[in-house]
């Protein structure tokens, strides 16, 4: 733990400057889309999905599978702010960063605002570094960057998919806006859910309807930005209660989002979808909350001053409950790759074209040099394809990738490559979201986990782990337990990355393979059985009879602390599962 640089209590913010803390001068600066692929790639400029509601409301299934909490950190774990600056470089190369006081995600501002309002309920951390003379880089920190939906959480994500049209392969759109707040020049990044064409007038849409007896449940709120280069962000808030504007409005204020789309559902169908212009509500909220907003501006300035005076200008802001924040020295983790710090080193002087050219050349040369020393890194590329009917160009920026040793769980992957895939279960926790990250690392590193095997092949390999009696030799033949345990991870890998084939036969094979694993405790240890079952239930909608069959084999936490460590010890075989030889 680093040394304490300062403690900032709520009482330190009791006398903020009297000037108004309002947002003015809103400008769109850059945007990008994350694209699905084997390497982290962003498309610059990006385009949010086009609001395109279907003519007939479809019946939606509940959200399931993996969802991002912080996609930037999930895909760029070492430098979550890097895609922001790569997009800025590509789309707005003459932008002067030396004048900027704050660069941050909207989420960080929301956390600090809750603190000054005295409404913080969760602990949080924010990494802070000062770049150039004064620019504070606030990096978002989350306990986990993605999650696996294992229970009912509404229809928010599937509602988005059904009511918007986006870039094929895009997994999220982010926008960077610039504005003045509390005497500070700020760059704010936020995720955007969609935009509407200019022919749609939000003012002409009726206000939210009355909810009768709880029959209609408010599921989500989607804020929509205008066409062209929208200056405002849209967010999705999924909840199983009435929309609380006191909670939503601050988020809309931070990103200056003027339009909110609210969907109500009944029996899995959204027959009541309304669009609201909330611009006046945001302005009214800003006026009514000036005391808290002045404290927010003062808090940000205090944090920046403390970090700027520290020896390495790098720190961590921590909130652990109560009425104070603690600023501690950082872990020497820089917020950006070295080449991006050149954006502050070169000062813009008027409209001197030579200076602009030299600045771009210096950055490009440094970037090229840094990429040449790291295997597998990309370079900036752009195109002008029209996407999603939006009239907006798409492009591609291959964001510099983390090296193997910075990818999530690369140390465990190295052990698995050297000593067998079964090592993953031995060394990992029992968090599905962590396994999702590990499997994506395996995929990104080009490791052939399946080695051409399908479910049928994997089942055969699982069965080879069993001991068998040879009637001719009148002796027991030991099974290949290492092969079976490696195959259990291959089965798990198929479930996690959804590499299954379609059809009922595929689910039956997956069910039989899962049941084989959980029913053979002498071959497959606790973590293996637990994770394979969880992944199967996450990926498939299982029947009552299938669940009943799985429940015949309860997975209890081992009473012996060393059960997982004795992976290669063979013991007496369990009773044979009845459908062992089902295919």
TrEMBL record:
This is Geranylgeranyl pyrophosphate synthetase. Residues 552-583 are annotated as: Disordered. Residues 563-577 have a biased composition (Acidic residues). It comes from Hypocrea atroviridis (strain ATCC 20476 / IMI 206040).
């Amino acid at each position: 733990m680093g040394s304490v640089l300062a403690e900032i209590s709520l009482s330190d913010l009791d006398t903020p400057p009297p000037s108004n803390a309002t947002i003015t001068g809103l400008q769109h600066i850059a945007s990008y889309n994350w694209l699905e692929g084997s390497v982290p790639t962003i498309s610059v400029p990006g385009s949010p999905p086009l609001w395109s509601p279907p003519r007939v409301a479809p019946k939606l299934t509940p959200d399931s599978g993996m969802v991002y909490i912080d996609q930037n950190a999930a895909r760029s774990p070492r430098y979550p702010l890097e895609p922001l600056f790569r997009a800025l470089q590509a789309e707005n190369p003459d932008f002067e960063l030396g004048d900027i006081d704050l660069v941050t995600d909207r989420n960080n501002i929301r956390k600090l605002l809750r603190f000054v309002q005295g409404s913080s309920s969760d602990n949080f951390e924010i990494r802070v570094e000062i770049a150039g003379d004064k620019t504070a880089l606030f990096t978002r920190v989350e306990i986990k960057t993605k999650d696996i939906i294992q229970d009912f959480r509404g229809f928010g994500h599937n509602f988005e998919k059904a009511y918007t049209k986006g870039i094929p392969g895009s997994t999220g759109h982010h926008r960077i806006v610039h504005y003045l707040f509390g005497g500070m020049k700020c760059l704010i990044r936020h995720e955007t859910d969609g935009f509407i064409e200019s022919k749609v007038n939000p003012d002409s849409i009726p206000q939210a309807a009355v909810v009768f007896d709880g029959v209609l449940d408010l599921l989500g709120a989607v804020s929509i930005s205008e066409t062209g280069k929208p200056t405002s962000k849209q967010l999705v808030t999924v909840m199983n209660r009435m929309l609380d504007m006191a909670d939503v409005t601050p988020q809309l204020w931070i990103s200056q989002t003027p339009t909110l789309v609210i969907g109500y559902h009944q029996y899995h169908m959204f027959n009541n979808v309304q669009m609201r212009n909330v611009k006046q509500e945001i302005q009214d909220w800003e006026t009514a909350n000036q005391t808290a907003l002045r404290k927010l501006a003062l808090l940000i300035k205090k944090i920046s001053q403390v970090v700027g005076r520290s020896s390495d200008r790098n720190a961590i802001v921590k909130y652990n409950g109560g009425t104070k924040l603690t600023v501690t020295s950082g872990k020497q983790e820089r917020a950006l790759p070295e080449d991006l710090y050149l954006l502050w080193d070169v000062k813009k002087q008027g409209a001197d074209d030579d200076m602009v050219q030299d600045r771009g050349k210096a950055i490009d040369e440094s970037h090229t040099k840094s990429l040449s020393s790291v295997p597998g890194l990309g370079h900036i590329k752009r195109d002008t394809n029209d996407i999603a009917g939006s009239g907006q160009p798409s492009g591609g920026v291959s964001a510099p990738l983390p090296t193997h040793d910075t990818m999530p769980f690369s140390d465990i992957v190295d052990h698995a490559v050297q000593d067998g895939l079964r090592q993953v279960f031995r060394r990992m926790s029992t968090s599905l979201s962590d396994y999702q990250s590990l499997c994506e690392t395996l995929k990104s590193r080009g490791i052939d986990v399946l080695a051409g095997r399908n479910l049928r092949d994997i089942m055969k390999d699982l069965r080879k782990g069993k001991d068998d009696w040879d009637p001719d030799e009148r002796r027991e033949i030991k099974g290949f337990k290492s092969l079976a345990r490696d195959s259990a991870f291959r089965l798990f890998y198929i479930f996690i990355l959804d590499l299954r084939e379609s059809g009922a036969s595929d689910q039956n094979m997956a069910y039989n393979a899962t049941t084989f694993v959980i029913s053979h405790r002498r071959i497959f240890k606790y973590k293996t059985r637990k994770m394979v079952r969880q992944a199967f239930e996450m990926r498939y909608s299982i029947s009552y009879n299938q669940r009943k069959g799985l429940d015949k084999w309860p997975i209890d936490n081992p009473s012996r602390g060393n059960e997982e460590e004795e992976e290669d010890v063979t013991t007496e075989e369990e009773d044979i599962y009845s459908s062992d030889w089902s295919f």
